[in-house]
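Anyone have tokens for UDP-glucose--(Heptosyl) LPS alpha 1,3-glucosyltransferase WaaG? Sequence:
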Amino acid sequence: MDVFTRSWQGDIPSGLNVRAIPSRALSNHSRRIALASEVLRHTQDQNYDAVVGFSKMPGLDYYFAGDSCFAEWAAGKPFWYRFTGRCRNYLALERAVFKPDSQSRILLLVEKDRTTYQRYYATPSERFHLLPPGIERDRLAPHNTEDIRRQVKMELGITEETHMVLMVGSGFRTKGTDRAMRAFAGLPDAIRDKAVMVIIGKDNFRPFGRLARRLGISNQIHFFNGRHDVPRFLFSADLLLHPAYRETAGIVLIESMAAGLPVLATDVCGYSSYIQQAGAGRLVPSPFNQNTLNRTLAEMLTSTRRSNWSANGQKYVLEHDVFSMHARAVDFIEATVPC
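Reply: yep, here.
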């Protein structure tokens, strides 16, 4: 199996032939165009059974729709933005996958994206295939959750009575980390003085460290540049806060449900519907209002319903398929790839 990518980090699993395709282009959209051109050049003359892409580009047999619809996002920008090279390039790559006469099949994460893409590209319905979420089973709360919770809070240097608000995910600007920090800073003194926020993800912390200082909450924010023990924090926190600006899916919402962690998220997250269906927390409706988030965070941290939200999330995960995304994707590709 050949893998085409701009770069690779870590060990290469057995059976994979990784082909790095570096680019000297200066902008992200130019590098994306260069990668798409090189992948197309390498694959169109080869006898591959199928070409599966995780980035939008021409020549794909299957596209894993992990990104939101760029055309919808661009529609909310000023008219002149559509004439920029960035917009034109990204729209061209997206159109190559979703235009009516494309042969690409789309592995869809959330049903509402089907309607969005069809609105802009008139993509035939039969080319979409909806996948379930795909969390790891180590996100299920173990029997010794209370022991884990005590250990994590001891490592953080906080008491067991301290409220712990958790954010998980890279891409802090898109995930709404600024919104989350403002909501935390806006908590009533009696709540905020007995609370901390833990932010885990790979990104540039510096702007958010400066924001924390301006908000006067530096001593109550713990930044971690990625961790291998995220489940421990899911089991230990009192609330997952995920006020994203944009989020195609939001797998951490499902992981939190499995861990028994109540969720407060914006309704733009693709997987926010699971929170609503399960009764596993609360959603901030669109259009977003910071005061609504602030008020809801304070209410949830002091609510007697937290145990209900926790139990509801765990019950939903046990009764529904939230584990088989990857297996279902493979099954679909094997069943539909031309012989």
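Residues 2-132+326-336 form a domain with the Rossmann fold fold (CATH 3.40.50.2000).
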